[in-house]
Please model this.
Amino acid sequence: MEKKFIYSFLFTFLFNINGVFAQDERDLIKYTHEFRFNDGIYLNFEQVKNNAPLPKYKILTDADYHDPEFFDKVMKHDVIYYFDDKGVKQELSLEDIWGYSRNGVLNIRMGNDFSRISILGGICHFVGTVTNTDTRYYDPYYNPYYNRYNPYSYYGGYGGYNNFYYPQQAETYTRTEMKQFILDFETGKVMDYSVQNVEIALMRDPELYDEYMALKSKQKKQLKFLYIRKFNERNPVYFPK
Model:
């Protein structure tokens, strides 16, 4: 009698577990190139994983919702106003959003710019524009001819005696450059597209990680993109239907 009860319990338990898994599989869809994200603004990465952005119709703006440049116009402002699920007006800083989807394509915020994610999977790849600010110091009173022959110049040919009396002034300038990045779709972490970071991202697939680590340094650098594709094929991403 006791054995029958145990068998009955195990059968019921396994049936329920399989039912949960089957339900999860029915509720999820595997990512392919045909997959399209819902258009809207993603406030955080969890909304990206759930494909649940803030829809356009909830955004308070003068831009036409059917305008192909809708998101470009909305993102020109430092603050975005929208209505939450209760119909209450909310304020959102541009710096606080993750990105947006336009025509089903995901775009991630990088500073004040947005970059299209070209390769999406367990490890995503994209190219972004990075703006760096540098400071350069100079002496507004510096005379190269005077300091060259000035016997009292402390530094011989630069800065010279004048710097003792007149402190250097700072000049700030910015420069932009295109860089490659990867996005770990498990954690949402964005990293530089380097050998070291590819190694970190591959750790979730021990077999593939060991295979990559066995390569020589030059091969690792040359085959980064190939192993990202291998990882994505072996570790597909799923989204709610």
The chain has a mean pLDDT of 82. The radius of gyration is 28 Å. Residues 37-102 form one domain.
